[in-house]
C-alpha cells in the first residue's frame, strides 16, 4: 500500500485552507467536534460494505475518537467509523488504510494509526458536493 507523502498532504491541506479562508461562503470554520460529526452525518448516506481505494487519499480529518472522514479526491468523501476508541486518531499526522485489491471493506479492513489497527465498523459515502453547495447558499454574500 502506498501512503500519501505527509508533506504533500500537509501542503495541499494548507492550500485548501487558505483558499477557503479567502472565500466569502462555504463550510463554517469554527465548529466543535460534535458539530462537525453532525454536519458530516447529515450528508452521509446509508452504510455501505466497501469503497474503492486506489492506494492513496487526498486528505482526512478526525471527527472523534472513533470517526474520521477520508477524502479520496477533493470532492469524494467517506465517513468511517472504527471499532473501539482509536485514541491516537486526533493526534497523528498521517494514517493508513488496509485494503484488498483496490477496495476497502467494512468489518474486514482497518485504519492504521501509528502501530495500532482500528477495525472499520462502518463506511458511509458523504455527499460532499451537496454539503458544500448548501453551505454556500446558507452563507450570505458580503
Biggest β-sheet, characterized? Answer: 7 strands, antiparallel
Shape: globular
Q: What is the helix/strand order? A: HHEEEEEEEEEH
Euclidean distance between termini CA atoms: 45 Å
Question: Residue ranges: pLDDT <50 for 5 or more in a row?
Answer: 18-26
Beta-strand content bin: 25-35%
Supply the number of structural domains.
1
Number of discrete helical segments: 3
Task: Give the overall average pLDDT.
Answer: 81
Number of strands: 9
Roughly how much helix do the residues carry, as a percent range?
25-40%
Q: Structural class, please?
A: alpha+beta
Rounded to an integer in angstroms, the radius of gyration calculated over CA atoms is: 15 Å
Could you give a short description of this structure?
It is built from 3 helices and 9 strands; from the N terminus they run ααβββββββββα.
Note the topology:
Layout: H1 6-22, H2 33-42, E1 44-48, E2 50-52, E3 59-62, E4 67-73, E5 76-82, E6 96-97, E7 103-105, E8 110-113, E9 116-126, H3 128-138
Antiparallel strand pairs: 1-9, 2-7, 3-4, 4-5, 5-9, 6-8, 8-9
Structure, explained:
The chain is α+β, with helices and mostly antiparallel strands and 142 residues long. It has one domain. It is 27% helix and 32% strand. The chain has three helices and nine strands; from the N terminus they run H-H-E-E-E-E-E-E-E-E-E-H. The protein has helices at 6-22, 33-42, 128-138; strands spanning 44-48, 50-52, 59-62, 67-73, 76-82, 96-97, 103-105, 110-113, 116-126. Strands 1, 3, 4, 5, 6, 8 and 9 form a seven-stranded antiparallel β-sheet that branches. Strands 2-7 form a two-stranded antiparallel ribbon. Strand 4 and strand 5 form a beta hairpin. It is globular, with a radius of gyration of 15 Å. The N and C termini lie far apart (45 Å). 23% of the residues are buried. The model is unreliable at 18-26 (pLDDT under 50).
Amino acid at each position: 500500500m502506498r501512503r500519501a507523502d505527509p508533506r504533500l498532504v500537509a501542503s495541499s491541506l494548507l492550500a485548501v485552507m487558505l483558499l477557503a479562508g479567502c472565500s466569502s461562503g462555504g463550510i463554517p470554520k469554527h465548529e466543535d467536534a460534535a458539530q462537525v460529526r453532525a454536519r458530516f452525518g447529515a450528508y452521509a448516506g446509508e452504510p455501505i460494505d466497501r469503497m474503492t481505494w486506489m492506494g492513496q487519499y487526498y486528505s482526512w480529518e478526525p471527527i472523534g475518537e472513533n470517526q474520521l472522514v477520508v477524502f479520496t479526491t477533493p470532492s469524494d468523501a467517506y465517513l468511517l467509523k472504527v471499532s473501539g476508541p482509536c485514541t491516537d486518531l486526533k493526534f497523528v499526522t498521517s494514517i493508513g488504510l488496509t485494503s484488498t485489491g483496490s477496495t476497502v471493506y467494512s468489518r474486514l479492513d482497518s485504519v492504521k494509526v501509528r502501530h495500532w489497527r482500528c477495525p472499520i465498523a462502518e463506511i458511509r459515502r458523504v455527499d460532499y458536493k451537496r454539503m458544500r453547495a448548501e453551505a454556500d447558499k446558507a452563507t450570505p454574500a458580503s
